[in-house]
């Protein structure tokens, strides 16, 4: 092969050198770089999965927050409705009690006025009967009996 310009020893030495360099590079460079790239790929994939999970969790949290806010709003409205109903009921009770108390006061005032009127009439009749008896005694004198005087007095008082 010398005629072609090929040196077999040199080719063999180059093949051995290439094998040694290939072996050293694969053990010292390709495997660590490959492992590093593999780990980096796994880390990136884990990060992407975590990011997707975090996005899903965030969306779920937002939905949950909306549900909680909506529930709180409904609860607040329910509390307001209950408070309004209780206040209305309390106001109705107070008005009813006040009305009943006013009716009692009016009834007491009417009964007191009626009793005062009856007492005044009774007192007036008593005084009038005394005046009538005195007037009859002065006008008629002793001509009437006590029984006639009482009858006339009673009749005069009844006409009043």
Taking pLDDT < 50 over at least 5 consecutive residues as the criterion, the unreliable ranges are none
Mean pLDDT: 87
Radius of gyration: 62 Å
Total domain units: 1
User: How far apart are the termini?
Assistant: 173 Å
Report what the structure shows.
Helix content is 92%, strand content 0%. By secondary structure, it is mostly helical. It has one domain (8-159). It contains two helices and no strands.
Structure summary:
This protein has about 160 residues and is mostly helical. About 90% of the residues lie in helices and about 0% in strands. It has helices spanning about 10-140, 145-160.
Using brief descriptors, characterize the structure shown.
2 helices; single chain; 0% strand; mainly alpha; 160 residues
List the helices and strands and how they pair.
Layout: H1 8-140, H2 146-159
Helix pairs in contact: 1-2
